């Protein structure tokens, strides 16, 4: 929390985003409609921890491996049964909401509750809102990554027409556009495997599960 508070004090962009999230949560969700704020490892914490502090709500820290930890009144406590309390999950972005279904929803369920709302900085408009709604979760976002955003960027010369075409294809049909990209760029996966780290892990996962059916 100390790092987030320091960033909040000294980084005007970060402060602006957090302030917008706080006002959005109060105005459109209602502080009375959630008892806890949760955030998942690790990028979510950059937003969820400081938001919980400013909204004066306990924070549920969720890990990819290992049980949740609850931060309350500056103390870290082992997870306890929160007995049906309503949880607002704060995150940086949402795509298909796979992390929610795979990890965050089950972890919250283990401590006797459920996520009722999620607030993210950006919704990439790839089905996440619809997938969350099937779980009874309402998604809210500060911005939506839609074609119009990139049309504006092209008009201002920030991206080329070719880049805009590629982005538009991806927004319209992410899986098929990536499938075409990989077929056209046959060395891409092999180069990614050699890169190491997260890039290598993701490339290996793509190959093992034949995600794009190539």
Overview in brief:
This protein is of the alpha/beta class and 214 residues long. It contains ten helices and seven strands.
Task: Explain how this protein is built.
It is a single chain. The chain is an alpha/beta fold. Helix content is 51%, strand content 20%. α1 crosses α2, α7 (161-172) crosses α8 (174-184) and α9 (188-195) packs across α10. The radius of gyration is 19 Å and the shape is globular. The longest helix has 18 residues, at 12-29. It has 10 helices and 7 strands. A hairpin with a 6-residue loop joins β2 and β3 (69-72).
- Helix % is 40-55%
Shape: globular
Q: From the alpha carbons, calculate the radius of gyration and give it in angstroms.
A: 19 Å
Distance between the termini: 45 Å
């Amino acid at each position: 929390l100390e790092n987030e508070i320091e960033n909040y004090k000294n980084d005007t962009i970060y402060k602006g985003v957090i302030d917008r999230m706080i006002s959005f949560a109060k105005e459109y969700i209602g502080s009375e409609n959630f008892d806890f704020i949760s955030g998942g490892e690790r990028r979510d914490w950059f937003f969820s921890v400081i938001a919980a502090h400013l909204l004066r709500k306990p924070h549920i820290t969720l890990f990819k491996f290992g049980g949740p930890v609850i931060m309350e009144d500056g103390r870290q406590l082992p997870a306890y049964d929160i007995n049906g309390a309503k949880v607002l999950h704060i995150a940086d972005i949402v795509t298909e909401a796979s992390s929610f279904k795979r990890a965050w929803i089950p972890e919250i369920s283990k401590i006797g509750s459920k996520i009722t709302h999620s607030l993210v900085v950006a919704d990439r408009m790839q089905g996440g809102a619809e997938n969350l709604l099937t779980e009874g979760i309402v998604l809210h976002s500060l911005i939506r990554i839609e074609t119009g955003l990139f049309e504006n960027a092209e008009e201002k010369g920030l991206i080329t027409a070719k880049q805009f075409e590629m982005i538009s294809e991806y927004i319209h049909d992410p899986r098929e556009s990536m499938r075409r990209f990989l077929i056209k760029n046959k060395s891409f996966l092999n180069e990614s495997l050699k890169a190491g780290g997260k890039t290598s892990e993701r490339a290996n996962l793509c190959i093992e599960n034949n995600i794009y059916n190539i």
